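User: Structure tokens for this complex, please. No commentary.
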Amino acid sequence: MVRVYVEHPLSAGQTVPLTEAQAHYLFGVMRLAVGDTVALFNGQDGAWDAAVAQVGKRGGDLVVQAQTQAQGAPPDLWLLFAPVKKARTDFIVEKAVEMGAARIAPVMTDYTNAERVRVDKMAAHVREAAEQCGATWLPAVAEPARLDRTLAGWDASRRLMWCDESRAGMPARVTGDPGPWAILIGPEGGFSQAERARLSALPFAHPVSLGPRILRADTAAVAAMTLWQTALGDWR
Amino acid sequence: MVRVYVEHPLSAGQTVPLTEAQAHYLFGVMRLAVGDTVALFNGQDGAWDAAVAQVGKRGGDLVVQAQTQAQGAPPDLWLLFAPVKKARTDFIVEKAVEMGAARIAPVMTDYTNAERVRVDKMAAHVREAAEQCGATWLPAVAEPARLDRTLAGWDASRRLMWCDESRAGMPARVTGDPGPWAILIGPEGGFSQAERARLSALPFAHPVSLGPRILRADTAAVAAMTLWQTALGDWR
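Assistant:
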């Protein structure tokens, strides 16, 4: 079934007007007609079935029927990553949603070499990924920030799992208590010596190996979130 | 350092002639000059440093110097996956190499809806990914085959971890002995009822959950290989 994020309250009997883009997608692309059912979520009210009540070229109406999912929430896990080339940044954002991040934050490291980061595009990828993966929430997308400033202002009660290429060959494992965590994925050139020294000295930071091969940033993001989710998150 | 796969024996003092494509990459794109060092591997002799000895527009020569990596091998893990849209199939192939698969096999399932599978393109992606991730081997790429025939001819000593969306919410875990294994990733529409029944009845098949959300095939491939590598493979 088609699943769509809307910015509108959802409750039984509610009429939800569609934007032009939503109408194009539902009626032009997916070819839905009056009476067909769509799943809706808005990030607050869970997911609901809704029936197509009116079809237009530039809009239309859905009428909300029954709730199908209670409002959920991801674990309290942030994904911090050094932006890479555009297509891979898009993938990292998509993967972060599927893998259950609560917050996605681009961080600029010493070796980050990225074009301008488009937070609006990242938010659009978040919506699409949430529609596809069945989440009822949208992770927040943070404005890009420098890693050194991010670490300077860090709340030490949030542990930080950082993926350390120099530990290749050590067991890939994260341990600790569930609760606030963040995962930090470096750029394709790795962390600088200064960054590595700083991260190693932080009491809340846990270095983790991701196996003996060099992973691309998007692969590393999925692998790191898998480690965390199976040890401490909602995959247990 | 630039790392290149070549189809040429590698030993100290050996001259390695370059193809036109390799010369274009090394001299045109990477701007290497006589005396610069390149890392070479051929899938058999480990990895070696080599010096640029001659630069040409359509070719050139490298001279092999010292071995830097012994020949390695991945765990005996196959990745079977239902091909998806082209870009995602390319990603799955790349991820399979980085994550340490020994063999990559496209399988056609009841709900597989893919364009023609280009095994030659898959092999090119395998080479690129091996160059990038530091592997000294190239996983084999199998011709596409139907899932039912693949299972009919299966060697029961190779266990099969299949990713079962209907187990969402069960712990994500694989257990067993190391040794021959394969991972099977279904298409984005999931497995059919018939396929699910058949897989459930196979004594060598182990169903595994990949968490409570619906993952895209490329995300599922990385997550499943992470589970396997940390439990049974070379990430331990």
